[in-house]
Amino acid sequence: MKPDLSTRCVHAGEPDDPHGSPHAPLYTTTTFKFPSTAALLDVVEGRRPGALYTRYGLNPTIQALEEKLAAIEGAEAALAFASGMAAESALFLAHGRKGIACLGDAYGGTLELLASQLPELGIPTHLLLGDEIDRLADLLQQGAGLVFFETPTNPALELFDIAAVAELAHAHGALVAVDNTFASPVNQNPLALGADLVVHSATKYLGGHSDLSAGALMGRRELLMPVWNWRKNLGQTIAPEIAAQLARSLRTLTVRVARQNESAMKIAAAMRAHPGIERVLYPGLPDFPGHALARRQMRGFGGMLTLEIRGGGAAATRVADALRLFALAPSLGGVESLVTQPCTTTHHGLAPEERARRGISDAMLRLSVGLEDADDLIADLEQALTAG
Ligand SMILES: *Cc1c(COP(=O)(O)O)cnc(C)c1O
User: Fold this and answer.
1) Which residues participate in catalysis according to the annotation?
2) Residue from 112, 204, 304, 347 whose mutation best tests the ligand 1 pocket (most atoms within 8 A of CB)
């Protein structure tokens, strides 16, 4: 029987240690010695797994982390990176060269890569918003080899049907990669729904404490091999110190996210009843447009929610500035609650018309719910809405 996710978070990727350490020890060394050339060649030529050189990821601390990361997404294997963008760029270079179709809104760095940097290298990219996905079949017909998307998206929490997209992409011989950062593996496992690859900014929920930058890519070993080569030669591998720190965070992942799910639901319900709020975007609310799909493909609704403040952009700014427990900062997934007004941060670079086209209003405040008491967080929102 496959152990439950909580058990895998604690025990996967924790090799037997000669000194009895229950956790994988931290090897900061960059190189590893061999008793003979024959033994060295076994590792170099892939006959035996083992440590060799840290930038290759062939370091016991990194390998232990990767075993845990794979177990957490239910994947055959995983690669750990220095950041989420490192994971995405290596993924795109390894599997996106025939063309990448991105569905819906995506992280700013991802959009920059897809909209300008990859096309500069001659890689065809296509950005389809949610209401344009009927064009996906045509793009696949024309040879796009990789479909990429986030679900839920930032900041509107739009959902895409992972199983349906995978079926369409596979019918055209294309691969599907899902950025699972917002949901976290506690709430959603895209591989189980038919996706080929899952990417995470481990800087967010996996790290969980806003104190490390890392990325992860999970999937079948055969699909990770070409990505491994890009990671190796672009020098994008996670540092062993950060790998150990991330493994520590992963041991508490399920406890943190379960609490964040619960608090976000409470806050969403309280805010929906508040006269200062125009609209609450949260997949857990029964009247949210993506709710039925969320129930089908997610186990929990996540710790991210977006509020539309009555009175527009200036009113939203006043509320953001009046919050005390919610810190005014971009990023997400940490133990501390954060608030951000997308038009001033994550989507600041877009023209107002483009934000409107993406359904992002200036009145939106995106909340990342942390581990503080939910009633304290609701009280903070209530005082800020009154003050604002
Ligand atoms: C933050 C983020 C990224 C980029 O991750 P970094 O670790 O900052 O490189 C990618 N995708 C999503 C959804 C993110 O939130």
Assistant:
1) 55, 107, 179, 204
2) 204
Quick: pLDDT tens for 287-343: 999 999 999 999 999 999 999 999 999 999 999 999 999 999 999 999 999 999 999
pLDDT at 294: 98
Neighbours of 233 (CB within 10 A): 11
Q: From start to end of the chain, where are the E strands?
A: 77-81, 100-103, 125-128, 146-150, 175-179, 197-201, 215-219, 277-281, 304-309, 327-328, 338-340, 364-368
Question: With a 6 A CB cut-off, is 236 part of the ligand 1 pocket?
Answer: no
Q: Are 138 and 156 in contact (CB under 8 A)?
A: no
pTM exceeds 0.85: yes
The pLDDT, as a whole number, for residue 320 is 97
- Domains, the chain, in order of start with CATH, read 5-250 (3.40.640.10), 253-387 (3.90.1150.10)
